[in-house]
Amino acid sequence: MERLQKIIAQAGVASRRKAEELILEGRVKVNGKVVKELGTKVTLNDKIEVNGIPLEKERPVYFLLYKPRGVISSVSDDKGRKVVTDLFPFIEQRIYPVGRLDYDTSGLLLMTNDGDFANILIHPKYEVDKVYVAKVKGIPLREKLKQLERGIMLEDGKTAPANVKVLSVDKKKQTSIIEIIIHEGRNRQVRRMFDAIGHEVIKLKRERFGFLTLQGLATGEYRELSPHEVKQLRALATTEGNRLKK
């Protein structure tokens, strides 16, 4: 037997966290009865419905996408803007992004229908390193960058320590290219971190997630992760989670 929210997540309907919300909202039925208890356990023989639709377990799939700028990290948008699932017209499974990249940010984004996998990678205690390259206005002083390395106070709390490296500067245009490595996933975090030290981000790209890179992909392209890569990501997240708890 498994917890109801885990079965819903494994079916690709939503992440486990979202599945818990669906249960609490009374939108899940088991054998014809509405269930609102998060501790409910079910078997493969139970008939489960989410929003009136019977649950059908999909084959889990895992993709690495080179997200372009100007695309929403969502499965739908009420303003009619392009979303990341539009880039997968021939994929039958109900995939969704693992975390998000801002509308104006490009780079590496994982897509899956495996809610457990997504939850492990985005849960605060399991965060893995993410490498961004930012083009910013101005040339930050070393002390300003050290503030980012130590952690800087934002409106939603102090950030965890980051690794920061200046890749290049353009004194004539007064811009800098800076690599920053973080393991958190707050909304627009990198942009807000640079805003906090007075250097607005002009362009932002996520180049690495854990050990994964964009090598071999052009913007808008994707590839399926190998089974070994999926296992490596699970192991990396668990290792990082254990490290952060110490």
Automatic annotation (TrEMBL):
GO cellular component, one term: cytosol
Protein origin, superkingdom: Bacteria
Gene Ontology terms describing biological process: enzyme-directed rRNA pseudouridine synthesis
UniProt keywords, alphabetically: Isomerase, RNA-binding
First-level EC class: isomerase
Positions of the RNA-binding S4 domain: 2-65
CDD domains: PseudoU_synth_RsuA_like, S4
Keyword Manganese: no
The enzyme's E.C. designation: 5.4.99.-
One Gene Ontology MF term: rRNA pseudouridine synthase activity
RNA-binding among keywords: yes
Family the UniProt entry places it in: Belongs to the pseudouridine synthase RsuA family.
Protein name, per record: Pseudouridine synthase
Organism lineage: Bacteria, Bacillati, Bacillota, Bacilli, Bacillales
